[in-house]
Amino acid sequence: MPAPLISRDEVVERLLTVFQRLGYDGASLAELSRGTGLGKSSLYHYFPNGKEEMALAVLRRAHAWIEQVVVAELEGQGSPKERLERMLRALDSFYAGGKNACVLGNLVVGGARQLYQRQLRSAFSTWVEGLESLALDAGISRRTARERAEDVVLQVQGALVLSGGLDDPTPFRRMLRKVPKEFLAPE
Amino acid sequence: MPAPLISRDEVVERLLTVFQRLGYDGASLAELSRGTGLGKSSLYHYFPNGKEEMALAVLRRAHAWIEQVVVAELEGQGSPKERLERMLRALDSFYAGGKNACVLGNLVVGGARQLYQRQLRSAFSTWVEGLESLALDAGISRRTARERAEDVVLQVQGALVLSGGLDDPTPFRRMLRKVPKEFLAPE
DNA sequence: TGCAAAGTAAACTGATCGGTACAACAAGCC
DNA sequence: GGCTTGTTGTACCGATCAGTTTACTTTGCA
Questions:
Q1: Measured between CB atoms, which of B101, B150, B164 is closest to A162?
Q2: How many Å from the CA of B20 to C1' of C9?
Q3: Partner residue facing A166 (CB), from B21, B121, B162
Q4: Is residue A85 part of a domain?
Q5: Number of domains in chain B
Q6: What is the per-residue pLDDT across B2-20, written as a single tens digit (0 to 9) for each?
Q7: Would you say residue B163 has pLDDT above 60?
Q8: pLDDT tens, A29-43?
């Protein structure tokens, strides 16, 4: 039966939630089919190269989201503090207050790592560089800026792992409050 | 053929490296067999409940390692600073300077998460509580101690994810230098 | 020397894996 | 109404999945 039902973007979005929840190896075609509401033939219609292409589309989507939401907030209007806090609010909503995992973090595991190392590095780099620019805007020195930018991404990822491991979103929420203080502190 | 060849502990140790590398879903019996050098029948001799029991044994081993190495270093001789740095050196060696992943972090992903939530929480808690005790020893106030303890674990996990994603151990190494300063800073 | 137990290899099971073939279907255009 | 194009369900493929069975070999012990 025809009539798109849902757009390709919507399909990728739903695929993302499955990979986010189960990682690459854990996301079977059956789960990807359930998660999208599409049969396997439809998935292969959108992604002729199968699961590998689905994960690639998801990584491209994640990268685009980092550019168009995360970095965009960092480059938006207002003081560095306001911009950083807008980014953190976007993360808070995307990660559901620490209850969701990070699709990038989950794709660093297992078979996906070698397969997507380039894309993963690129996505993390974009994120770090956006934060680095913000730090420079805030008057932080060049080398400190890079370190603080990496620290933010590092702490977001660590908070998601720890909150996942403890099954308690508290560390994630505390991290959200702590990051702005450290990031913008005088050197 | 009989004659243990390798001890059960040695088997668990080798299983750990496979789960550490591939996660739960990515660690097939074929890989677990290759990684241990044992045939499937031998693995099922040691672990009648199969992969689920293997991962459980690995988590027990990881928990024991946290108690007997990580926490033991924290409770050992010397100043809080020295003890913390001994723990970090143990982590540095275990994670191969940031090139290895954390088996706990990798088992938070996918099918393993629900299966082992209790064990994961317990392992992370033991680690955090060991650090909290050290902070109290160092004269840090009760509530700050808990936060700083969580921060250390959070930063170790985050550094491993970021170093994995960037395929560059630099963030992990920088984290090792940064943690002692923050952890023992005056309040 | 004999024998139970520990350990192992190889061949096997049914289920699920990722992936394919194909026919049926609806919408847009003529 | 035909025709093309895009989309879908169903049935299927070989490979691999986790797990089992069986028969064998070696060891420790009596």
A1: B150
A2: 28
A3: B121
A4: yes
A5: 1
A6: 455 688 999 999 999 999 9
A7: yes
A8: 999 999 999 999 999
